[in-house]
């Protein structure tokens, strides 16, 4: 990587890390102030919230989140528009950013409102022990997933526009086809995401189930990668399918929601009264519960990321083994590093706290060790 690009990559990572850290610090401060100033009691005095029903829970969540709107817009503008624009990673204009930000806000609001509904109404059930919390936790991931995917299919701007790679399908080498067929894939299950008019970055991912499974390459990746490099990327994504990472990821998510909510409600029962949160269940519980969940999530985040990085290491090993072409793996990693301005060798704490994938340098070293065998 050219020294100038390496310096830009480190600066890009540094600014992103500072921004995310500041956002969570402000969020914790805001929830703490809401609790300490007992603002919930003032919100509950509104006539719309006199009766605790479905509408009241939704409106209450909206009132609590409304002051965070400027913060979220500033965070999105900085992370998704200003910083990427500054480093030449995106091409889209401010209008496109505002549309994406509005979609993100809508999904966050719906998810938190659904979570509030499930917490409030399941905790009210006269069930023994921790069963109400368990019921809420087990249902929540399913409801949120259905809501998000339903929203995606209802709102056409959110539908991923995957295009079949007809030209690539016709020109795929026999070796590439053989690799795909060996692992229950066809060249027709390769697709592209039309994004070259919006971004300069390269990406690839696996999506879908059963016969609808698809490996998606960004247009920029197709333009800049050789076919052997595409093989390495494709086998990496096939590895996610082979190891069942999609279903494992969903299970991990559900397990974490279960654990976090159970611990959060336990803390709420123990410390809630001293924080003016009221008896269970009560609308006043929500800010305290959200604060506990946020802190628990931040505490458990390094473990979650370490699992994700280990999965990526495993599929890297899989791709190297089946392609037996570490040279192409290394070259495509270098292109990802160059185009996406990813810090090739971040500080250990940054890797542990922010990286879902292993640093590029570690992935290249893995391929070099494979080549020496």
Structural account:
The chain is mostly helical. The chain has a domain at 3-159. Helices cover 70% and strands 4% of the residues. It contains 15 helices and 4 strands. It has helices spanning 3-36, 39-44, 54-65, 69-86, 94-123, 131-154, 166-171, 174-182, 219-224, 227-242, 245-271, 285-323, 326-340, 348-354, 360-371; strands spanning 162-164, 190-193, 204-207, 214-218. A 4-stranded mixed sheet has the order 1-2-4-3. Strand 3 (204-207) and strand 4 (214-218) form a beta hairpin. The longest helix has 39 residues, at 285-323. The radius of gyration is 23 Å and the shape is elongated.
The portion of residues assigned to helices is: 55-70%
Work out the radius of gyration. Answer: 23 Å
| Total number of strands | 4
Main sheet strand line-up: 1-2-4-3
Q: How does the overall form come out from the CA principal axes? A: elongated
- Structural class by SSE content: mainly alpha
Number of helices: 15
Query: Can you tell me the residue ranges where pLDDT is under 50 for at least 5 consecutive residues?
Result: 151-160
Order of helices and strands: HHHHHHEHHEEEHHHHHHH
- Average pLDDT number: 79
Report the β-strand fraction as a percent range: under 5%
Largest sheet: 4 strands, mixed
**Terminal residue distance:** 25 Å
